[in-house]
Amino acid sequence: MEKLVVEINLFFLLFTYLFVQSEGQIIAQFTRLSLNYSLENITSLSGIRTVSYCAAECTRKRDSCLVISYDSEQRTCNLSNQMAVYSKTHPVSQKTVIFTRVLPPSCPEGWTMMDVKKACVLNKGKEKVSWNFAKHECEQIGAHLPYFDSNEAFDWFRNFRNNSTDTHYKNVWLGAKFETKEFQWGNGNAYGLHNSSDWWCKERGEPDGGGICIGSFPIGNQFLLRDQHCNNYLAGFLCEKDMDHMT
Ligand SMILES: *[C@@H]1O[C@H](CO)[C@@H](O)[C@H](O)[C@H]1NC(C)=O
Ligand SMILES: *[C@@H]1O[C@H](CO)[C@@H](O)[C@H](O)[C@H]1NC(C)=O
Ligand SMILES: *[C@@H]1O[C@H](CO)[C@@H](O)[C@H](O)[C@H]1NC(C)=O
Ligand SMILES: *[C@@H]1O[C@H](CO)[C@@H](O)[C@H](O)[C@H]1NC(C)=O
Ligand SMILES: *[C@@H]1O[C@H](CO)[C@@H](O)[C@H](O)[C@H]1NC(C)=O
Ligand SMILES: *[C@@H]1O[C@H](CO)[C@@H](O)[C@H](O)[C@H]1NC(C)=O
């Protein structure tokens, strides 16, 4: 059983409470609500409890606990996965405080978290399509072909592709294309795409005018960027979506 010794209120004004272990590791993060709620689908923790104990129990129960109702006078608490407003018909005691768990960011099932960018990635490598089709497919689900604007993001992507043990196509489209006078990512950035001396295309003479749409291709033990025809060349693809826009 984890020992809870401190209850720090680091951001009092934001009503965010962090419950930490003696070593300082954060084990739970809650937001305090200044509303009169009573809860549905409750589990009452018996006996006199500290709010830290209740928070730890709630965190341990994962998805089945999202909210705590703590009576600071009786020192009892209810845990629940649901909230309801019953302030008129079932008023809670004035000494009752409600906390909701701050859930860690996550990606929906089937998507992989791209932690370096706070984005989620969906591997559509089982379909072999044109760049134009891939772009459209991603847009249909509110996503876009992947953009990279840092070495970290590109390294992540390379490892992700290299780790994949399935039979997906290894050649995949990225969200970059020749626009007016230079290659650009779909967000207008040209990071890593400026010219063939840049690192991602280095020593390969890419882009070589084979097309104006960019894909990632495994060559030897490297993943390189190459330009290919946007309609005639077929490859797998990935869709990327900001984590903030997932729901
Ligand atoms: C909560 O209840 C108390 C007492 O019943 C009341 O004074 C207060 O205005 C209520 N707060 C909200 C946000 O409804
Ligand atoms: C009550 O919570 C349990 C555990 O999370 C859940 O399985 C059940 O569906 C919930 N009941 C209702 C009515 O929401
Ligand atoms: C817990 O739930 C019970 C039953 O609904 C209620 O009587 C009690 O006031 C609740 N306690 C807290 C701290 O919310
Ligand atoms: C790739 O695999 C390594 C070793 O298993 C792992 O540490 C890393 O997180 C993986 N990276 C990605 C992006 O999947
Ligand atoms: C190519 O990119 C490098 C580094 O970004 C830059 O120093 C160089 O001037 C560029 N060359 C041309 C021809 O644009
Ligand atoms: C892919 O992984 C293998 C073995 O895990 C490694 O030797 C190789 O360098 C990696 N390739 C890339 C492009 O990261």
Can you offer a commentary on this structure?
The chain is mostly beta strands. The protein has two domains: 4-101, Hepatocyte Growth Factor (3-Layer(bba) Sandwich), CATH 3.50.4.10; 111-245, Mannose-Binding Protein A, subunit A (Mannose-Binding Protein A, Chain A, Roll). Helix content is 13%, strand content 37%. It is built from three helices and 14 strands. The chain has a seven-stranded antiparallel beta sheet with strand order 1-2-3-7-5-6-4, with helices on one face. Strands 8, 9, 10, 11, 12, 13 and 14 form a seven-stranded mixed beta sheet that branches. The model is unreliable at 1-14 (pLDDT under 50). It binds 2-acetamido-2-deoxy-beta-D-glucopyranose (6 copies). One 2-acetamido-2-deoxy-beta-D-glucopyranose binds at residues 35-36, 87, 91, 94.
Give the helix/strand layout:
Blueprint: E1 4-11, E2 16-21, E3 26-33, E4 38-45, H1 51-60, E5 67-71, E6 76-84, E7 96-101, E8 111-114, E9 119-123, H2 131-140, H3 151-163, E10 172-179, E11 182-185, E12 213-219, E13 222-228, E14 236-242
Parallel strand pairs: 10-14
Antiparallel strand pairs: 1-2, 2-3, 3-7, 4-6, 5-6, 5-7, 8-9, 9-14, 10-11, 10-12, 12-13
